[in-house]
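By convention, the token line describes the chain's fold. To illustrate:
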Amino acid sequence: MTRFIAAIDQGTTSTRCIVFDHAGAIVALAQKEHRQITPRPGWVEHDPMEILANTIEVAGAALARAGIVAADLAAIGLTNQRETTVLWDRATGRPLANAVVWMDTRTEALVRRFAAQGGQDRFRARTGLPLSTYFSGLKLAWLLEHVPGAREAAASGAALFGTIDSWLAWHLTGGLHVTDVTNASRTQLMNLAGCAWDPDMLAAFDIPAACLPRIVSSAEALGEIVAAPLRGVRLAGILGDQHAALVGQACFAPGEAKNTYGTGAFLMMNTGPTPVVSTSGLLTTLAYRFGAEPPCYALEGAIAITGALVQWLRDNLRLIDTAPEIEALAASVPDNGDVYIVPAFSGLYAPYWNAGARGLIAGLTRFATRGHIARAALEATAYQVRDVVEAMAADSGIRLAVLKTDGGMVANNLLMQFQADILGVPVMRPKLAETTALGAAYAAGLAVGYWTDRDGLRENGEIDRIFQPAMSEPDRTRHHRSWKKAVARSFDWAE
């Protein structure tokens, strides 16, 4: 057996390559950040060429740190920030514009226009998604309208569309234009039941089919990588980042759920082979599809801003020098001093879906300090997760007995304890926080036979700590009531 398997984890702020062994343990990791380009308020862009260069660089660094070469890898999986949209020239391979990032809100006018003609949920039955600036179909429509020559090039197939998985797969394999079902499900262009591009959605958004990638399984041998240093390695798995984390947490049974704390936070529950229509503000999406098996569906609560709020305190307000410092600053006060932060920088996602919401800090008095601001920022993440957990229980009829967690923010003990307190259920932190990359590795490994038993993957996960709730029910209710009051104040600030 080839000794190792690898994953490329292309995220909102950085790109990582991780080499895993057969037990799911990390052998080597390399990571590099990329620029966040904000040309106007509400606009967020990435340079696709920078992301591609970083991907190749971290792949080489990870192999070097592991002391291996490409031939030592059974396969590689790819996971990515999902709705971020790229349009590039087929002949040159260069982007026609910067990538429009998932949190970008420039399509607000398009959302309003389509919602006026049939409501925010007019496409939910087909796609599982409400109208929102979040999803990539309208981002593509915006690019086709505003980039000179883009529409004509896309209609002829001279320009290609893709989310970041498609962009990287095309370049790494020398022209394979694909996307997996999980990423396709986030475009609002795919029919959820048929897992195929929906002609009526393409017509509604005026999207030419010639520019679209082929939809493939999340786990299948797609082709060999031609770019050094991974030349000859099979690309065998693609999953959007939150779906990869679900797989990495081995949530293979209906009712099993995980929450990922990163730039945003994403709670996803496996609902099995049948889509569950949400009436509580959640998204119906693909969980994964392995090979020729029927697709597996999920409910998801997407929160736009969690870790990005800590970055904002660091980079914009200079309240801290490094992100980890926020825990000590927040712990310098015993509570939030009745200060609440609603981080609606890009509107509010699940369960509110209020594109006009904007961020606010509520409850300020002369008593408030840097510590209270820091604590309120961490608590904002936990409150948003509680809102989604309650919506998920209403949709699925399942109340979580324990919350499985992953992502960079889970290292923050104060946040994890408050999350348990405000939910009133235990919060479980795994020893391996890199479950997103692990899920992509699992998908690739299953596709090529590196792992043969899906259920056996559960044995790879080890628990680091379980946080037990310690807050009284009256305090829990009081804090959440104040949070909901602050959220209501944020609604429809932008007209």
User: Anything to note?
Assistant: Residues 370-396 form the longest helix (27 residues). The chain has a mean pLDDT of 94. DSSP finds 15 helices and 23 strands in the chain. The longest strand covers residues 26-33.
